[in-house]
Amino acid sequence: MNSQRIQLAVFDMAGTTVDDRVGGLPLVLKSYDDALRSQGVVVPMEVLNAQRGRDKWTVIQELAGEKAEAVFQRFLESLRENISSLREMEGSSQVFQFLHEKGVKVVASTGFPREVAQGILDHLGWLDEGLVDGWVCSEDVGASRPNPAMILESMRKYGVSDPRRVLKVDDTEKGVLEGLNAGAYTLAVLTGTQSIQQLSAAGPHAVLRSVAQVPGHLLERKLV
Predict the structure, then answer these.
(1) What three-state secondary structure class fits 25?
(2) In tens digits, what is the pLDDT along the chain, a chain of 224 residues?
(3) pTM for the whole thing?
(4) Farthest CA pair distance, the chain
(5) Which has the closest alpha carbon to 109: 157, 50, 47?
(6) Helix (H) or strand (E) holding 88
(7) Are 33 and 76 in contact, with CB atoms under 8 Å apart?
(8) Cis peptide before 146, with omega less than 30 degrees from 0?
(9) Which are the contacts of 219, defined by CB distance < 8 A and separation ≥ 6?
(10) Which of 45, 171, 189, 192 is the most buried (most CB within 10 A)?
(11) Pick from 88, 85, 89, 139: which is nearest to 112 by CA?
(12) DSSP 163
């Protein structure tokens, strides 16, 4: 990575900037498990955990086959029921504000379905408060991580042509690979459910404890 300064930052939501733990369990994993079991499909939790970061409908299609539609509807119900319990990961708003002060556009990205992503953003107030400039979900671009389509769409929207001027922050292996596939400067954070070994193996430029460490890291490397 050269010393070109970041112009666009794309942040994953659940596990990175959104704390999705409900009753001690990550909502995404609990919702997958409950929805699959409702149709008699049992998938080991480690398999579900490995799917984090991907488009949710794509995952359910692969795991539930002909039962996918019923499973997906139950999955959506579980997510909708719990949106009000979600909160931002500590430091997220401050990081967004820091980047805006440096002239960086901030985008939230997610594998959540559009209606769920919109509900979470409304609940957190990020758009209303101007903390993020926009958001994108895999449903919008028709491709699931590690495909870099969400980052590429964000670059197009905000007029950033050089991927070296893009920052991607994620808590999953699939999200790290998404950033690298786009050619972006990619940071992994340890606030999700995947281990430092899993994340490091994906090859991010650095692994941080949490999103709160992003400003210091960027300043140290003169990327903002």
Answers:
(1) strand
(2) 445 899 999 999 999 999 999 888 899 999 999 999 999 999 999 999 999 989 999 999 999 999 999 999 999 999 999 999 999 999 999 999 999 999 999 999 999 999 999 999 999 999 999 999 999 999 999 999 999 999 999 999 999 999 999 999 999 999 999 999 999 999 999 999 999 999 999 999 999 999 999 999 999 999 99
(3) 0.92
(4) 52
(5) 157
(6) strand 87-88
(7) no
(8) yes
(9) none
(10) 189
(11) 139
(12) G
DSSP alpha helix (H) spans, 51-184: 56-64, 68-82, 92-101, 114-124, 138-141, 149-158, 173-182
Residue 139, token pair as written in the block: 């449903």
Looking up tokens 């119900």 gives 77
In the numeric block, the tokens 């992003």 are attached to 214
Number of other residues whose CB lies within 10 A of the CB of residue 216: 11
Neighbours of 200 (CB within 10 A): 14
Q: What domains are there in the chain, each with its CATH number?
A: 8-20+87-220 (3.40.50.1000), 21-85 (1.10.150.240)
Strands 18-19 and 87-88: antiparallel
